[in-house]
Amino acid sequence: MASPPLRVFFLWHFHQPWYVTFDGQPAQLPWVRLHALKDYASLPALFSAHPRVPHAANLVPGLLDQIEMLTKGGSDAFLEIARTPVSQWDSGAARFVLENFFSVNDRVLARFPRYANLKMRAEAGEAASPRPTSATSSSSFTSRGRAPRS
């Protein structure tokens, strides 16, 4: 006797913690913005290519509110530093970058030798200096000490 067909339904649940503060400061973490750029848009596109696959997506209200804030010019601490020219970073900004901008899979990192080099330097403790040094000066973040090409 043959088994009945397996019935599958995909339920996608999207959520993020509330990263926004109410004091006018940018959100502390970039995950809503980064996932909104990549993941949240790709899933509907995937399923639209396969309309017979039963599915539903649940986006929690807090996530939708944060996405809406971003569409109205909201930001996060990571984006604020990334928008600032390296030549204008102080030692605090340089330290923040060295301590926070390397949350990336090593396979992805391997495709970008300069980025991998900066991660290696951060892991070697070069992010611990409280004042600008050769490790935390703005020229450390640009190729051969020159400003990156636009």
Question: What would you note in describing this structure?
Answer:
This protein is mainly alpha-helical. The protein has helices at 31-37, 39-48, 61-71, 77-83, 91-100, 106-109, 113-126; strands at 10-14, 55-59. It is built from 7 helices and 2 strands. A two-stranded parallel ribbon has the order 1-2. The longest helix has 14 residues, at 113-126. The protein starts with 9 loop residues before the first strand and ends in a 24-residue tail after the last helix. Mean pLDDT is 82; it is low at 128-136 and 143-150.
Q: Secondary-structure blueprint of this entry?
A:
Blueprint: E1 10-14, H1 31-37, H2 39-48, E2 55-59, H3 61-71, H4 77-83, H5 91-100, H6 106-109, H7 113-126
List keywords for this structure.
about 150 residues, mainly alpha, two-stranded parallel ribbon, single chain, disordered C terminus
Q: Describe the oligomeric state of these chains in a short phrase.
A: single chain
Number of H- or I-type helical stretches: 7
Rg calc: 21 Å
Physical arrangement of strands within the biggest beta sheet:
1-2
Query: Tally of extended strands?
Result: 2
Order of helices and strands: EHHEHHHHH
Mean pLDDT: 82
Q: For the record, give the distance between the C-alpha atoms at the N and C termini, rounded to a whole number.
A: 67 Å
* DSSP strand content: 5-15%
* Apparent shape: extended
Residues in helix, %:
40-55%
**Computed structural class:** mainly alpha
Query: Poorly predicted ranges (pLDDT <50, ≥5 residues)?
Result: 128-136, 143-150
What does the largest sheet look like?
A: 2 strands, parallel
